Structure formats: structure tokens, C-alpha cells
């Protein structure tokens, strides 16, 4: 299994749709996980942190399945402004706090 | 806003020339990182620093060196730029979250083109 693996997409969805992204990881010792959002030609920005089974923030829900080493991000009621690339991020392990970034899933929300 | 700036924001240079990119932070974070981002590869760690004069290699460190003489500044140097180093370079800091994992915040990036 790759360290972090995501479906690259693109996911093309209409406004108002619900869309889910999946991510698998190989380091079973990881305790925390992150979803970042990256707009075209911009820096990645933290969207959500996931420490236990899941986290919810408005229209965004992140879920964690440790047994399957699987993380998901659900976006409800998609907006045009949600169009971006979503990066799944997993700690590499060790004390230095290094992170492993997935290659990202591209989302395009259409009117 | 994590108070991170990068300079220059854009640079075009020729093969064989030295290039230095600067990352500056204003919040006294101990850990700083340099990444490159290329299509099909995602973000890859070049070097990181865990304090003044304390640095270590990442997964793609060949052809790059770094220096950190002050907490606020982390420099990335391409000693002799090659076309394969054309990329977008991001600097990041590690922020203590209070939870079981620390996340990172990124600067705006530097677009480097090596001709």
C-alpha cells in the first residue's frame, strides 16, 4: 500500500451535490490526519484536522476508519467556491512532525 | 494567517546559476520546511529545520542546501540550477495544535523556472 493514496479525480459535480473523497494510508501508527484545500496556483490551506473517529465543520465532514486505514471527506451542498484540489495528509511518524501529502483530488463544482 | 512570506515570488534563471529562495516567519516557530510541488508528484519535502543551525534532509534533497542562522529565516539554495528544478517551492511552519498532531501552515510559494 502506498503511504498516502487518493483518487485524483477530477470530480465534476453540480452545485448543491454531495461529494465524497477517499484516502488510504499505510502507517497504522498515525494518530492524526488532515485535509488541506489548495486553490489553483495558491498554497495549501488547512481545511480540517481528524483525531478520533471523525470531525464535522459546517458542510464538511471528515471520517476516520483506523481498522481499514481509510479517511474520507464529505462535502454537502457543494458551492462553486468549493472548486479546488483536496489533499489528504498523514504524519510520517517520529518526533520531527513531518507530514506525507497525498497527490490530491480535484473537485470542480459547476452551476 | 501564519505570518509566512517567501521571496522572490517568481524567478526565471538559467541552467548552472545559483539561486537562493527565502522564507521568513514572524511568529517564532521552531520548525520550518521547504517543499516542492510538481504535477503528478504532489508536495515533496526537500529539507527541514528544527532550530537555528539545525537542519535535516527530506525525500528530495539532492541539489539543494539550506541554512537557518536566525529563527525567522530559512533559506533554500540551488547551488547550480537545473531544468529539473523548475517547480513551485513552498515554505511551511509547524504549528502546535494542542491536539495529538501538529499541522503545518504554508507560505504563498515561489515559482521558479530554470531555462
Account of the 3D structure:
The complex is a heterodimer of chains A (111) and B (115). Chain A has 111 residues and is mostly beta strands. Chain A has no helices and eleven strands. In chain A, strands 2, 4, 5, 9, 10 and 11 form a six-stranded mixed β-sheet that branches. The N and C termini of chain A lie far apart (37 Å). Chain B is an all-beta fold and 115 residues long. Chain B is built from no helices and eleven strands. Chain B has strands at residues 4-7, 10-13, 19-25, 32-38, 42-51, 54-57, 64-70, 73-78, 87-95, 103-106, 110-114. In chain B, the strands form two sheets. In chain B, strands 2, 4, 5, 6, 9, 10 and 11 form a seven-stranded mixed β-sheet that branches. In chain B, strands 1-3-8-7 form a four-stranded antiparallel β-sheet, with no helix packed on it. In chain B, strand 9 and strand 10 form a beta hairpin. The N and C termini of chain B lie far apart (33 Å). The mean pLDDT of chain B is 93. Classes of the chains: A mainly beta (111), B mainly beta (115). The A-B interface holds A 31-34, 42-46, 49, 51, 87, 89, 91, 96-99, 101-104 and B 31, 33, 35, 40-43, 45, 48, 50, 56, 58, 90, 94, 97, 99-109.
Question: What is the helical fraction of chain A, as a range of percent?
Answer: under 10%
Q: Indicate the mean pLDDT of chain B.
A: 93
Which chains make the largest contact? A-B, 22 and 26 residues
Mean pLDDT of chain A: 91
Total helical elements of chain A: 0
Order of helices and strands of chain B: EEEEEEEEEEE
Give me the count of strands of chain B: 11
Distance between the termini of chain A: 37 Å
The percent of residues in helical segments of chain B reads: under 10%
What is Rg of chain B? 14 Å
Beta strands of chain A, count: 11
Write down the oligomeric state: heterodimer
Structural class of chain A: mainly beta
Biggest β-sheet description of chain A? 6 strands, mixed
Ends apart, CA distance between termini of chain B: 33 Å
* Major sheet characteristics of chain B: 7 strands, mixed
Succession of helices and strands of chain A: EEEEEEEEEEE
- Strand coverage percent of chain B: over 45%
User: Structural class of the helix and strand makeup of chain B?
Assistant: mainly beta
What fraction of residues of chain A sit in β-strands?
over 45%
Amino acid at each position: 500500500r502506498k503511504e498516502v493514496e487518493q483518487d485524483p479525480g477530477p470530480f465534476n459535480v453540480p452545485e448543491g451535490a454531495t461529494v465524497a473523497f477517499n484516502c488510504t494510508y499505510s502507517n497504522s501508527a498515525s494518530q492524526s490526519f488532515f485535509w488541506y484545500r489548495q486553490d489553483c496556483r495558491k498554497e495549501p490551506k488547512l481545511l480540517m484536522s481528524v483525531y478520533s473517529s471523525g470531525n464535522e465543520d459546517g458542510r464538511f465532514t471528515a471520517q476516520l476508519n483506523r481498522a481499514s486505514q481509510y479517511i474520507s471527506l464529505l462535502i454537502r451542498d457543494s458551492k462553486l467556491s468549493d472548486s479546488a484540489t483536496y489533499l489528504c495528509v498523514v504524519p510520517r511518524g517520529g518526533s520531527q512532525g513531518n507530514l506525507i501529502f497525498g497527490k490530491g483530488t480535484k473537485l470542480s463544482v459547476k452551476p | 494567517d501564519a505570518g509566512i512570506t517567501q521571496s522572490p515570488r517568481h524567478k526565471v534563471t538559467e541552467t548552472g546559476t545559483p539561486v537562493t529562495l527565502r522564507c521568513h516567519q514572524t511568529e517564532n516557530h521552531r520548525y520550518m520546511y521547504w517543499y516542492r510541488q510538481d504535477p503528478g508528484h504532489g508536495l515533496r519535502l526537500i529539507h527541514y529545520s528544527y532550530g537555528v543551525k539545525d537542519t535535516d534532509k527530506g525525500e528530495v534533497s539532492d541539489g539543494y542546501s539550506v541554512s537557518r542562522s536566525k529563527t525567522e529565516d530559512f533559506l533554500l539554495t540551488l547551488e547550480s540550477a537545473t531544468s529539473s528544478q523548475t517547480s513551485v517551492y513552498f515554505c511551511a511552519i509547524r504549528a502546535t495544535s494542542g491536539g495529538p498532531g501538529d499541522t503545518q501552515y504554508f507560505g504563498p510559494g515561489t515559482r521558479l523556472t530554470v531555462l
